[in-house]
Each structure stands twice: as structure tokens, then as C-alpha cells.
Design brief:
- Helices cover 8% and strands 41% of the residues.
- The two termini are 17 Å apart.
- The protein has one helix and four strands.
- Strands 1, 2, 3 and 4 form a four-stranded antiparallel β-sheet that branches.
- It has one domain.
- By secondary structure, the protein is mostly beta strands.
């Protein structure tokens, strides 16, 4: 279980290069602190695979 609480989520408009991919930045403000995640449509993830996964707010990222 994840006892952390998501307080705010925002996506920046800036494109950031990560491992050669132009990515958007997702910033999660949580009780435990700030988490930054990077994503691109060129590397999709099937959220159904992670529907019961609750570690590290990953389910919030995919939502």
C-alpha cells in the first residue's frame, strides 16, 4: 500500500530531452515531497497492467 497522499499534479509545457526522447515533465506534489516524472507518447505504457500497483504513486501517474 501507498500511504502517501497526492496533493497536486501538474504537467509542464517545456520539452525536456531524456535518453534522446523529447519528454514532458509531470510534477506530483505529495505529502512526502515533490516527485518529477518524464513521459513521451513514443514510449506508451498500458495502464491496465498496473491497475493494482500502488507503490510510489505510479497508479496516479498512469491515471
Amino acid at each position: 500500500m501507498n500511504n502517501d497522499e497526492l496533493l497536486k499534479a501538474e504537467i509542464t509545457k517545456n520539452m525536456i530531452e531524456v535518453s534522446g526522447y523529447k519528454c514532458r515533465e509531470l510534477i506530483l506534489t505529495c505529502k512526502s515531497g515533490i516527485q518529477k516524472h518524464y513521459f513521451t507518447s513514443k514510449l506508451p505504457v498500458d495502464p491496465a497492467i498496473f491497475k493494482n500497483y500502488r507503490w510510489g504513486n505510479f497508479h496516479e501517474i498512469l491515471a
